[in-house]
Amino acid sequence: MEKKGIADLVPMKKLYDGGTIPAIGMGTFGSDHYTPSQVAEAVRGGIRAGYRLFDCAACYGNEDQLGQVFEEAIQEGIVKREELFITTKVWNDMHGKGDVLLSCAKSLRDLRLDYVDLFFVHWPFPNYHAPFCDGGSRNPDSRPFSVEEFMGTWRQCERLVDMGLVRYIGMSNMTIPKLEAVLPLCQIRPAAIEMELHPCFQQPELFDYCVSRGIQPIGYCPMGSPSRPERDKAEGDCSDMEMPEVVKIAEAHRIHPALVCLKWAAQRGQIPIPFSVKEPQYTGNLKCVTEDPLTEEEMEQMKKADRNNRLIKGQVFLWEGARGWEDLWDMDGTITK
Ligand SMILES: NC(=O)c1ccc[n+]([C@@H]2O[C@H](COP(=O)([O-])OP(=O)(O)OC[C@H]3O[C@@H](n4cnc5c(N)ncnc54)[C@H](OP(=O)(O)O)[C@@H]3O)[C@@H](O)[C@H]2O)c1
Fold this sequence. Notes:
Strand order of the largest sheet: 3-4-5-6-7-8-9-10
CATH architecture: Alpha-Beta Barrel
Shape: globular
Distance between the termini: 61 Å
Bound molecules: NADP nicotinamide-adenine-dinucleotide phosphate
Number of strands: 10
CATH superfamily: NADP-dependent oxidoreductase domain
Number of domains: 1
Radius of gyration: 19 Å
Number of helices: 11
CATH class: Alpha Beta
Order of helices and strands: HEEEHEHEHEHEHEHEHHEHH
Largest sheet: 8 strands, parallel
CATH topology: TIM Barrel
Structural class: alpha/beta
Oligomer: single chain
């Protein structure tokens, strides 16, 4: 019998139309710390290790380097294009009329692909911040969420599906009030919503909202993003890998706490997209969802460990007159204006 590689063992999840997506992927945001070539090397190794889902974005500034890796891997017969599931995202400065198409065209050219599998609206407003900016940076053109503006962006995403340039479209950094406003207006529904999800920030309401509507949650910062940009570090932030509940389960399984975060994520039902440029770390991150699952009791302990501690607060996207980062997340159940 042919020996199975890790890629064959990774569970697949079903999207709303029956199409499939791997239950874990690799993140590609170098977080202002890792260079495009370091991330590209990790993707090269990741494909060989068995990753098939790669979470890319125009604003990560490395799609050109990743594209070379995807092209080589396909040409060398290491993987077939249809076995890969590549996502990318339109950045906030490309929401205007016609710009989404241009952004997608550039990503396709850089990634050296004919189509992407899932195309996200990275943030639900056109508020732009420069790469490497600090936490106090504000853009005077920033403005609150607008249903009309968002739908203008979404219509362009729908057009990309019609044109065959993307298979699925998705949203990222959404809230329930924003989804309530836009979902009824979508001609093509989002297949997935990318959101911050890790043990100390489980977003149970948003998670359940998506699952109950057949929208796949994709969890970013699955291990609490210890290397996130300085602008996203705040006093009092929880460190997932040091949470006593996580450490205790890690000890019981004799694994690193990072792997507890990933096992929990995959078993709960979100798709974690861990980032690592280190080996054997990234292979371990992938492999852990194929073996030695957490028990029901451990899953229950993890559920109770939630601290509602958002790490990516997004304050750099605030508009003039906003009170604080909480305004981005519609904390009182209505869209903050
Ligand atoms: N849609 C959005 O707005 C959005 C926002 C943020 C992120 N994302 C996506 O989500 C991906 C993942 O998020 P993230 O990179 O911020 O956070 P993360 O995956 O939670 O954390 C990555 C960091 O964790 C450490 N790590 C990884 N594997 C480990 C292991 N096995 N043991 C110990 N430490 C380990 C590494 O730190 P060291 O480098 O220090 O070793 C690595 O840089 C991103 O790459 C990006 O694709 C999307």
